[in-house]
Design goal:
Layout (H helix, E strand, L loop, with lengths): L1 H14 L14 H24 L11 H8 L5 H14 L2 H17 L22 E7 L7 H10 L4 E5 L3 H8 L9 E4 L9 E4 L3 E9 L2 E10 L2 E9 L9 H12 L7 E6 L7 H7 L4 E2 H5 L22 E5 L3 E8 L10 E7 L2
Parallel strand pairs: 1-2, 7-8
Antiparallel strand pairs: 1-12, 2-4, 3-4, 5-6, 6-7, 8-10, 9-10, 11-12
Helix pairs in contact: 2-3, 2-4, 2-5, 4-5, 6-7, 8-9
């Protein structure tokens, strides 16, 4: 008799479904209910941002301020991704687990490649080739950057070409007065006045200097007459899409910059006011440009904002150096802002004339 009862109990226990992996529970605990609610809200948030990031190819949101603002926040989704995973584990429900796994997978394949880690290892052990090029690119925040410190950093880095945005006339004079900056005997800039000014400095002669209106914004460029050949540098500084009214101008500028010819050795450097999470910038890259960050970057390499009271560290990678396929990136790193609100980019590359 006892054996029969034991068998019946065993049968009943075997028929009870396990809590883990069920799509629901007749009497879920308070923790599991909270986990389920938080999980679904977080998954919805992540999915919304990922959809808006990809929305322009679908015909919506290309110049919409709200969607582009959310797209810029895509790298910061790592926080809600972690929350979603923890919530799925707490709730122990199959449907939420599947949804979480799906958004995490999409996040991994769309965002992780942008925050490349290929450059986090040591720099190449071999010495730079004689023909290597070292570029320093920075937005100096309407000349608020400390010219003396920036000039000293440029000299210490043994830079060949300097590409600056928002370098006012007074700032330029202070910069060129720094000991060692006399190596840059060649320059081209916008029409010089007291307004924000973009400038290219070079230790090698410049040729065919130009000031073009691309999408309503002045872009200066010049041929750099390197001892091994000629390459062209464009100083890029697009309109900041901080207001809804600027969105169409910002996109038009990125579209026009993307059409710059790159059949010969060409470099685009500066403040693009865009990240790879913005579709217009990704469209620009698809025209045959490579971001040196994707070759030798280390993590997000965020460059903006810096020196802001309530922002302890930069959040977005707005500054870029893009190259034609004639260049091979040796290294990329961020320098010190020295009073600016942007981190400078210092990159070294080999090239084929």
């Amino acid at each position: 008799m006892a054996d029969c009862k034991g068998a019946e109990l065993a049968t009943v226990e075997e028929q009870q479904p396990s809590d883990f992996g069920r799509s629901g529970d007749a009497r879920p605990t308070a923790a599991r209910r909270v986990g389920r609610g938080v999980g679904w809200l977080t998954v919805a948030l992540i999915a919304t941002v990922l959809v808006l990031r990809a929305a322009p190819p679908l015909g919506v949101g290309r110049i919409d301020f709200f969607t582009q603002l959310l797209a810029a926040a895509t790298p910061m989704l790592i926080v809600p991704v972690v929350v979603a995973v923890l919530a799925a584990l707490v709730s122990r429900t199959r449907d939420l687990g599947v949804a979480t796994a799906l958004v995490v997978a999409v996040f991994a394949v769309t965002v992780a490649p942008v925050d490349a880690v290929v450059g986090c290892g040591p720099e190449p052990e071999t010495a730079a080739a004689d023909g290597a090029i070292r570029i320093y690119s920075a937005n100096v925040w309407s000349g608020r950057g400390r010219a003396a410190d920036i000039g000293a950093a440029i000299v210490a880095e043994d830079v060949d070409v300097v590409v600056l945005q928002e370098a006012r006339w007074v700032f330029q004079q202070e910069l060129l007065a720094v000991p060692g900056m006399d190596r840059f005997g060649y320059s081209v800039s916008e029409e010089l006045d007291q307004s924000d000014t973009d400038v290219i400095l070079s230790r090698w002669p410049l040729g065919n200097a130009a000031r073009e209106q691309l999408g309503g914004r002045t872009v200066i460029s010049a041929d750099i007459e390197h001892p091994d050949g000629v390459f062209r540098v464009h100083n890029v500084h697009t309109t900041a899409p901080m207001r809804p009214g600027n969105m169409s101008r910002w996109q038009a500028q990125l579209d026009a910059i993307g059409e710059i010819p790159n059949e010969t050795p060409t470099i685009l450097a500066g403040d693009f006011n865009a990240t790879e999470d913005h579709q217009p910038f990704r469209s620009l890259l698809s025209n045959g440009w490579s971001d040196v960050h994707d070759d030798r970057g280390c993590g997000p390499d965020a460059t903006w904002p810096v020196n802001r009271r309530f922002v302890p560290r930069p959040l977005l990678r707005l500054d870029h150096v893009l190259v034609s396929d004639h260049f091979t990136t040796r290294s990329l790193r961020l320098g010190s802002p020295h009073g600016s609100d942007h981190m400078p980019l210092i990159t070294e590359m080999d090239w084929t004339p």
